């Protein structure tokens, strides 16, 4: 058997002595080609014609991607997302969970469902409060996992969280951070800069640095062989948006020359 349309050689299963067999280890909701050949003590006979079959659906095994949002007014937000990387079937809808109290379990958050669309508007938010938003996809079989928190402040013109915030150590004393800018709602809400908050694991005092609009930043003069945490927020003329979730990166140990 092999995946339909694949140029890979057929995978063979030997030693089957019955006229029925259940093939495991296949991907959900995927087409496969099968053929059968009889074997005796002299050798293998010719293969049958190819039979095509598709595996059944499962619930998605990954969350929706690129969850992002912005405020349309002080009480209404619009949230967008992309289909999961591993839908495992036909996605029939999405559930969007939101709350201003992220200490509550998710099953106590407010929720809305949407079918055949990858965006939703949430109304009735309380101005100036920070909201936490998570999204899951579901197939006819069940629910997939929830996305990570998206934080958004209910204030017109304030940017939402930067997304895909990540970093890597470039030397013993520097870390390169990168991200995707949050969506901007028109010329009056342009991002004017970013604020980065960071802290060494052993320190209690946070440090802040501000810089012009960009999608990467090289932070220098760090201590070698140390764990650092980072959070990033975008700014507009209306104020500062919600910070990203905390990102942890280690600087490497100083290499000693022999």
UniProtKB/TrEMBL annotation:
InterPro entries: FN3_dom (IPR003961), FN3_sf (IPR036116), Ig-like_fold (IPR013783), RTP_Phos/Ushers (IPR050713). SMART domains: FN3. Gene3D superfamilies: Immunoglobulins. Keywords: Disulfide bond, Glycoprotein, Immunoglobulin domain, Repeat, Signal. It holds the Pfam family fn3. Residues 1-58, 63-159, 161-254 form the Fibronectin type-III domain. This is (spotted green pufferfish) hypothetical protein. The lineage of its organism: Eukaryota, Metazoa, Chordata, Craniata, Vertebrata.
């Amino acid at each position: 058997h092999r995946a339909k349309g694949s140029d890979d050689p057929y995978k063979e299963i030997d030693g089957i002595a019955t006229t029925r067999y259940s093939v495991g280890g296949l991907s959900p909701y995927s087409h496969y080609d099968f053929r059968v050949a009889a074997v005796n003590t002299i050798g293998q006979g010719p293969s049958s014609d190819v039979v095509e079959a598709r595996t059944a659906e499962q619930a998605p095994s990954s969350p929706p991607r690129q969850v992002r949002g912005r405020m349309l007014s002080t009480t209404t937000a619009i949230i967008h997302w992309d289909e999961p990387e591993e839908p495992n079937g036909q996605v029939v809808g999405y559930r969007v969970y939101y709350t201003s109290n992220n200490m509550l379990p998710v099953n106590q958050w407010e929720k809305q469902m949407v079918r055949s669309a990858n965006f939703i508007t949430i109304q009735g938010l309380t101005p100036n409060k920070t909201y936490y938003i998570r999204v899951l996809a579901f197939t006819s079989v069940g629910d997939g996992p929830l996305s990570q928190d998206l934080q958004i402040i209910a204030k017109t013109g304030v940017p939402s969280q930067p997304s895909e915030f990540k970093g890597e150590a470039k030397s013993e004393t520097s870390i390169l951070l990168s991200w995707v800018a949050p969506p901007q709602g028109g010329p009056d809400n342009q991002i004017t800069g970013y604020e980065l908050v960071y802290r060494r694991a052993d320190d209690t005092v946070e440090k802040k640095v501000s810089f012009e609009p960009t999608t990467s930043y090289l932070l220098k003069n760090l201590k070698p062989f140390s764990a650092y945490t980072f959070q990033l927020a975008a700014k507009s003329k209306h104020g500062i948006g919600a910070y990203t979730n905390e990102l942890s990166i280690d600087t490497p140990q100083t290499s000693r020359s022999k």
